[in-house]
Design goal:
With 257 residues, the chain is mainly α. Helix content is 77%, strand content 0%.
Length: 257
């Protein structure tokens, strides 16, 4: 059994009600806190793909239940994001100091102010590069962990299960090829979506003379593309789960049964 990339990209359009499902999902995912229901939706989609259902795209018929199913996973992702946010803030702080030094320097004309400005600029650049480098490494690590986090949460449904790193790493070692393929494909699809959104942004700039309609349309376009990428990622994770649970697959500690 292998990862079917073409199926992950095209399965959405095989559903007769895909426009309604994706459109409603786009609106829900654009609302903070309520978008935790999207993570519950993701769990249902992963499960249905792993079960081999030909039309795995679920309905949004019980948003309350989806929210209750997904909010713990959303909290876990927020916790994982804390180091990333801290790194971004650390990268920005030196430039705030630079701004303060520049403001003070205008009122205090002295040689040491100029020297202080030069030192502050050097330290700001150094700190910014180091912090952004750490953010990049953490982002890459989270990208590798994300499929494992989703599948572990699908099994237990608890906040604690999202931090069972030992089980996640053992599953990575046992199924590293499909895991790596899912991560790489998700990254490539995300970058392709970034290009599409960039082109859409250029169109919005050209049509910016049209008030209200174009900005709102572009916002919905961004949400729609993001939802599409989200559904592709969930389908890939569902295929990964099917590979892990396939008969004859070597078991790992905490394997799903």
């Amino acid at each position: 059994m292998t990862i079917d990339v073409g199926r992950a990209i095209s399965y959405i359009f095989a559903d007769e009600r895909w426009l309604r499902k994706v459109g409603l999902g786009t609106l829900i995912m654009m609302v903070p806190i309520l978008n935790f229901a999207g993570l519950g939706y993701e769990m249902n989609l992963i499960r249905q793909v792993a079960q081999g259902q030909p039309r795995p795209l679920p309905e949004w018929d019980n948003v309350d239940a989806l929210f209750r199913q997904g909010w713990r996973l959303g909290v876990a992702y927020l916790i994982y994001a804390i180091p990333l946010v801290a790194g971004i803030i650390t990268a920005a702080m030196p430039w705030v100091v630079m701004l303060l030094v520049a403001i003070v320097g205008k009122s205090l004309k002295s040689e040491w102010i100029g020297q202080l400005r030069s030192i502050a600029f050097f330290l700001a650049g150094l700190t910014c590069c180091g912090s952004l480098g750490c953010v990049g490494v953490l982002s890459l690590g989270l990208s590798f962990l994300r499929p494992a986090i989703a599948l572990e949460y699908l099994r237990y449904g608890t906040l604690r299960s999202c931090f069972a790193w030992g089980t996640m790493l053992s599953r990575w070692r046992a199924h590293w090829r499909p895991y790596l393929l899912v991560v790489v494909i998700t990254w490539l699809v995300g970058n392709a979506a970034g290009i599409v959104l960039g082109l859409g942004n250029q169109v919005m700039v050209v049509l910016s003379w049209i008030p209200f309609i174009v900005p709102i349309g572009y916002l919905l376009f961004v949400g729609f593309v993001s939802m599409y990428i989200f559904l592709i990622s969930a389908h890939l994770e569902g295929q990964l789960l099917a590979i892990i649970e396939a008969p004859g697959t070597p078991a790992t500690d905490g394997e799903m049964v």
